[in-house]
Amino acid sequence: MTLKLSNHNRGFTIMIALILGTVLLVLSVTLYTFVSRQYSGMNVIVNGEIAHFLAETGINTTIGTIRDSISNNLKSNSENYQKLRNIFLSGKSLKNVCINDLLDSSWNNDLKAFSREVDKTASIEVNVYLRDFKQSEMNPNIWHDPKAVDGWLVVESVGEYKKIQRKIVIKRAVSVFNLVPGVMGKFSLYLNDSIRKDENDYNIIRNDYNGMITDGPKPIIVYNHATPEYPVEPANIADVLRDERKSDVWQQRGWIWLKGGKTRLNLCSGSGDLGEFFQFYDVNTSNVFTPVKFSSPAQNLPESFFRPITLPWDRSSISVKNTAYRFWHSFVLDSFHDRSSRMLVEAMYEGQVLSNDERLYYGSKSSILHLFGDARKGFQSRTRVIGPVYSAFVRFAYLDVKPEDSDVKNIFENNNPKPIYLLRSLPKEYYNDSVAINEFAGRKVGGPILKTGMLFKDYKEYSALMSCIVELPYAESYNSMQDVYDRKADRVFPTLKKVLDLDTNGESVIERNGNTFYKGKPAIEDSLTLIKQRVQNTFSTPKEFWKKYLNKDGELELDSVVCITNSNNEEFVVPPVGQPQPLVVKGGGIILLNNGNITLRGISLANTSETFTIASTAESKVRFESTMTNMVNIIAPKAQVDYGSKFELFGSLCVKNIYADHRFQGGVIRYREAQDPTHSSYDRFYKVFIANTDSYWNE
């Protein structure tokens, strides 16, 4: 029997077959697509790995060349070096600047040839960028340096194979800043606590008329600007002399800070061992000193000085004569000295011009701190002193006698030396209207027979004009120095022109070309803060430090900012014991010492375009063990200078105080003008520091 399907069943069977065929077709297409995609994905992965390999090849084959090229450019004087340095020191925010052209990027030609050997579709390209640079020192209350920036040096390598790219990025941190430690670049001497016992603490040296020491320790002499005899960076004598006549010369020279209470600095006489001559001497030629005469302002004189007075003259043995005289008042200021070559007594009290009370109160000792240098042309140190600093001066007061009678006037003018009428010191209890005012040497010159009551109503008027020791703020003496330089015919004291105000630790401004580096009370802590922020490497002991940076020739190749924690409180000796003196420093840099004393045995810079600083946060001592020059800045605000060898420092000195006794040998501080932020020479000390470690990114 034959089974026949109905038309309905036959249609159903065909539909099932079609569905199964469609499913099989879809499965076949899906499987084919999956396999194709897997194959394509595998190709992408493989090609990507090859591209990554090519990018790595670019990094590995060029990174050494790139680093050497940057290093060589930063140390050379080539045109590319100048362009690269200008970019680093522009102070601008840099988002992404390619510097291939400044590094002789011929490596890309070599990489192109290598990649073509792999495949005609392969390529390698390596580019170098400065990226994400921004200012790092922006606070004028600590230090505002528009050229100080932080950013990244980026080496970017792109490998490509069969249109697949892979990128590898290597980044190194970059810091640009000046190696001169902030506000300290403006100071030649900074004593963080100059008052230890009393205001006379530094007046401990006895010296004679010629500035030769008769008793006591030796002084520290400070030159606040370059001089013609500087061992390095000598100044041109013509430039120095021209600058000395400027009333604002203190802006361009090293400042001095004496922090603490009132400080009295008695000045020495002469220009001998002490290297200082009182600033109220005119120096027409080298080593020729002429005392400068000052007149008293008219408003300070009694009424009797404004009209002629008829008095008997002193030549009564010739004739009895009354004649008219006019009187005026002037004085010369002198400095302290002890014994002269002419007398065995203390010379400043000759002729009983000054009182014994003043002698007991002030003494005749001069100061261990000589802030004014000496008075030779080209050597005078006109500087700004910050702090309540006073100087005690001997004032020899003159009564200027001017006869109205022409014959008597001729007698006065033909006397050599000219008649001298000194108003000697008188204690109040010895003053009366009948004290005689005589010619100093007792000569009969036709002068008036004069009593105190004829010119002065009372002791108050007399004491304001008599010879005495006067104590003046440093600013007043500085202002009068300007009158000396201006060669005014009639100089008055205090001067009518105010150049400086008395600075009692007030706000200071350090600026150049419209940029304010600093504004506020100069604080050494600000410089230490900057140094701490800039530290690039830290060592536990001085031994570790010397092992890293001392080369086989015993030279210090630093060129960085390092910190030595020194928890064992070891003495930091420079150069270390057993090494040649002086220590030659290459590359400059800063050493921050957290603990231990500092002993200096001589330091020399291999290149004057470098600067070197040793800073300390410890309550320690700074000792000079050698007479060799130390070309270094010392920043140790909690340390004191201890007695040792006579020293010469070429740089800035910041300490807490100076311990001075009879063993102290003194020294010379020569301010390094090139480090002054207000000078264009400051720019030579900017450094570009590139970190030693890399950060990797794959893209």
Shape: elongated
For the largest beta-sheet, the strand count, sense and barrel status come to: 12 strands, parallel
Q: What oligomeric arrangement do these chains adopt?
A: single chain
Radius of gyration: 40 Å
Total helices: the number is 10
Mean residue pLDDT: 86
Into how many domains do the coordinates divide? 3
SS elements, strand count: 43
What is the terminal-to-terminal distance? 78 Å
Low-confidence stretches: 1-5
- Estimated share of beta-strand residues: 25-35%
* Range of helix content: 10-25%
Give the structural class. alpha/beta
What does this structure look like?
- With 699 residues, this protein is α/β, with parallel strands linked by helices.
- It has three domains: 170 residues, no CATH class; 316 residues, no CATH class; 154 residues, no CATH class.
- The strands form ten sheets. Strands 7, 11, 20, 27, 29, 30, 32, 33, 35, 36, 38 and 40 form a twelve-stranded parallel sheet that branches. Strands 1, 2, 5, 6, 42 and 43 form a six-stranded antiparallel sheet that branches.
- The chain is elongated.
- The N terminus is likely disordered.
Summarize the structure.
Helix 1 (7-75) packs across helix 2 (79-88). The chain has ten helices and 43 strands. Strands 7, 11, 20, 27, 29, 30, 32, 33, 35, 36, 38 and 40 form a twelve-stranded parallel beta sheet that branches. Strands 1, 2, 5, 6, 42 and 43 form a six-stranded antiparallel beta sheet that branches.
